[in-house]
Amino acid sequence: MPDAPAQERLQEQAGDTAAVAVAVAPAVADLARIRAEEAELVFTRFSRDDAWRLGSRMREAAAARSLPVVIGIVVGQQRVFHAALDGAVPDNDAWLERKTRAVLHFEQSSLGVGALFRSLGRVYEQESRLDPDEVAANGGVFPVRIDGIGVVGAVGISGLPQVEDHAFVVEQLREFLAEA
Question: Which of 85, 144, 149, 157 is exposed most, by the fewest CB atoms within 10 A?
């Protein structure tokens, strides 16, 4: 039987483990939902014309809602669509770039990258081995994945709270792919 101090340490560790499990449970659920979205929203092809149509559609939807966002689409390392709506600020462009880098690096949605770290009880900014000033795991950018090929780019917005950024992009991708 452990001595009293050892027993206290074991109880503390067990309590810490329980606290971590409670803290990561929402992130695990979020991650499962995000992974399902990533599996669902896959293209059969994606051209620069598709990027223009998707970006224009997103701009129209954001403008109709008076959203103060920037919208960007990259193919490879080249930005092929960009729009800044009224109310968007230069900081939104910087966030869009940082989130896009996360998507291209991890080949997952930027919200999914953050949820992955949270589901493991880890802090992205401290444990990703990437400069968080350059690569951000905040929601709003989604991979452009072609079936049978993989990730060829990214589409996203910045300007709203990260979960809302992500939800807008997912909504627009669903509608765009349903029309294809």
Answer: 149
DSSP β-bridge partners for residue 156: 72, 141
DSSP state of 21: H
Tokens (6 digits) for 109: 């949605």
How would you list the strands of the sheet with 150-158, edge to edge?
78-84, 70-75, 150-158, 141-146
Q: How far apart are CA 169 and CA 36, in angstroms?
A: 15
Q: Please, are residues 38 and 143 in contact by the beta-carbon 8 Å criterion?
A: yes
d(CA 119, CA 164): 20
**Are 103 and 110 within 8 A, CB to CB?**
yes
Distance CA 78, CA 62 (A): 23
Listed range (10-24, 62-76, 152-166) with the worst mean pLDDT = 10-24
Taking alpha carbons only, the member of 155, 157, 2 closest to residue 74 is: 155
Whether 153 contacts 177, CB under 8 Å: no
17-26, 39-48, 100-109, 155-164: the lowest-pLDDT one: 17-26
Distance from C-alpha of 71 to C-alpha of 52, rounded to nearest angstrom? 11
Q: Can you give the pTM of this predicted structure?
A: 0.86
